[in-house]
Structure formats: structure tokens, C-alpha cells
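Continuing the series of single-chain predictions for the mutant panel. This is the parent chain; the variants come on the following pages.
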Amino acid sequence: MATEAAAPTARERERDAMRRAVLLSARGLGSTSPNPVVGCVVLDTGGRIVGEGWHRRAGGPHAEVHALAEAGEAARGGTAVVTLEPCDHTGRTGPCSRALIDAGVARVVYAVADPTPAARGGADTLAAAGIDVEGGMLAEEAAEVNAPWLTSVRLGRPHVRWKYAATLDGRTAAADGTSRWITSGEARADVHRLRAEADAVLVGSGTARADDPHLAVRGVPGAVQPLRVVADTEASAVKPGARVLDGAAPTLIAVADDLPDAATAHLDGHAEVLRLPRDGGGHGRGLDVAALLTALHARGVRSVLLEGGATLAGAFVAARAVDRVTAYLAPALLGAGPAALADAGIATIADVLRLTVTGIERIGPDLRVDAVPAAPAPAVHEPKES
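Parent structure:
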């Protein structure tokens, strides 16, 4: 005899709502900087979803406001489930803590505490108004989607995702330099989705010279075009007529600060020129990675998609400025040709940068592998001899 499935508990409904809120928050990737992405779901007193919302653009209504507007009076006595602690300050919009209080919700569940001094405190304000508040639900999942903003708050620089495409033996091009196309059309379409989620797309002079990349988003409806950035130390790789100068998206060319003004004259009126110190200050060296990231952060960039070649990737790895790696691996072998990563300042296996794989996905015939730097192993203390 068949038995009826037990009705979900209130706790299960809240967790389901938080999963939905995390998915909603991801819709804001690429369009909310310098603000976080946030999703919110409102449940009525019976645990039914009556309102949903997400932060859509910087300066616009926050996720809670959208969800409460959709819920209307059904929010009274219900529960608001939100991926980030409701803000408690007035900026371009009012505090979400006050909006929740005015809506009459009885309970607020959030995933991640707000780390910013100006906005945090919403949980305390809600609790002081007699609202039941709980934090930490599905915090890891919510933080992963919001990693760009959280990285920028905690480290004072943009979150960097290094993306590359290679054969299974790690080659990004053939020995003669040809590289189009190692991976499939499906993989390349996925890269455009990554671009659409980023605030800036970055390549180096080698890629600019060899490939003349466009770096704009294609095939993603409604995408906000990211800032196109070329680290062109000597101002010699981006020539007049280069595709990144076509006006399809804003472009910034980063050059060494010791170049004469005449070296960048060909870029006037076509791109913003950013002058930065060289790494180590020596002539002939690349740009200082930390200075580049600091300058991008000051421009409101919270996420960078690093699409540069092996040399630029090596500089970022050496600076320990890669927060996520996304590799597209084609089922092919070359045996010769450039490797995905050049010198990254790692001379011995003891210094290897260990990664934790967070996802493996088939995309067409290719594999997409996502990984993040592994947490350092805890120190092992040998017992002292007595």
C-alpha cells in the first residue's frame, strides 16, 4: 500500500527557499558592481513562496525590496530568506532592515553576514525590532556566488578567475603558434557567459599581438559589456585598428609609467591609458600585478576574468592573485607548443600551488574543470623531546 510523502517541515521550506535565493542572486553577476549580488525569497505564514527578487543593478532596489513588493501583504507574519545579511544603512537606496520591519515579517533567515562596516548591523536591528533572525544557512553556497564582492571587501582587490583552454597534455597552441580552435563551439559559448559575469576581461601583450582578441561578450542577451583590459607594458601590442579599440565595449590599456607620452599617442581617443609601475621596477619587466588590481578596484571592478597567455598567468600566480581557475580541456594531444602556464616563481615541489577541484562538467566534447586554491594545511608540531 502506497504511503503519502511527509509534508516538508518549516526548516526544509526555508532551505529550499535559500537554494532558490542563491540561484536568483547569480542573475545579478556582471551588473551590480561595486555592490554584491543578492537574492531574496519571501514565504507567507504557511511557508509558501509569495515573493522573489534579486539585486539587478548598482543603485537600483535591493533584492529584499523587489521580493517584498511582489509579496505585498502576504509578507506580514512570514519569513524573508536572503543570501546576504540585510543592509542597515542608507546609500542610493534605503536600509533593507527597515523595509523588512515595515513589511511586518516575523522571521529573517540570511546566509552570509555582511562584512562591510557601513552596511552591517541589519541582523541586530531586526532582532531589536522583535523579529526572529537566523544567520549562516547555506552560507558556503551563497558565498561562492558572491565571491567577487566578498574578495574585494576582504582583500581590497578584485576577484580573479584565470580561464584557459588547452589540450589534455596542457598545450594552448601548436608549435607553429596556431591555436584556433582548440576547444569546441560549446566551450567558447561558455566563455562568453563567464565574460558576461565579469566586470573586466584581461589579456597581456602576447595574446593581444598574436590573436588580436575582441574580448567583448557575444551571444548573451542583456549582458553588460565588461571593461576590456590589455596589459601592454611597452604600448606596442595594441596597434591602431585593433579589435579591442572598436568601441563595442570600454577599453583600458595598461602601460609602464616610464614610457614617454609619444609611446601611447596612437591610443588617444580610442582607449583609456593607465600608467603603472613595472614589477620590481626594472626596465623590460612586466607590470606590477598588485598595482594593476588596485587600480581596477578603484574603478569599481570587483571581478576580473584573466584570459591572458602563459606569461601573464604566471605573473598572477606568482603574485598569488588567482582566486579561481577554470580550465577547458579538449580531448586532443599536441606534444609540443606553449604550455598553459609559464614561470610562476615556483622552483620546488614544496612550493606548489595546490588546488581544490570544485566542479567538473562536460561541455560538448570538452571538459570544464573549476578549482580554487586549497586552504593551507595546518602546521604539524612535532612533540618535543623530554
